[in-house]
Amino acid sequence: MIKLYSDPQCPNSHRTRIVLAEKELPIDTTELEPESLPADFLEVNPYGKLPTVIDRDVVFFEPSVVNEYLDERYPHPPLKPGSPAERAQMRLAVLRIEEELYPLYFNLVKVKKKTEPLKKMRAYLDMLDSYLARQEFFVGEQYTLADVTLAPILWRLSPNGVDTAKWNNLEGYMDRIFERPAFERSLSEHEQILQDRF
Q1: What's the pTM?
Q2: What domains lie within the chain, and their CATH numbers?
């Protein structure tokens, strides 16, 4: 059984829970608060990073690394495209989302004055909506780790004051990824009450 240490509120932990739910893997989950990590966890992972996964006594952390490991170790259903070029596109997409969208989100939730962070987030979502007009998922027609990386931030937009109603392509995409049974299974109790979408 896979051991998962997860922050029930953080989109990074949510990403890994989505992958585990897609794979329908047996997991033993321990929810932790990053501000008060217990000593026994820090013995397992001195870096104190969440999510942390232990599989076959090997410790993995950093969500992109964890998720790629899980997809390679447990390949069904696949969350990476089949061709090397498409896999490279997916990795680039994950990297760009991590470097561009995640900082926008974390800035939005941390600051008291939301005007400028909301403006930057809306500009990013304008671009994303245009991009999603051309395809069903982020990398073509297959649900991949790029979609897994996007989903937790998109789930948190409305509770943080971002109305997505004007972006039809984005809303259609959000419906497709949020309606996946694995997405619903991935939600922590905190994430379930963020919005009443279902």
Answers
A1: 0.93
A2: 2-73 (3.40.30.10), 84-181 (1.20.1050.10)
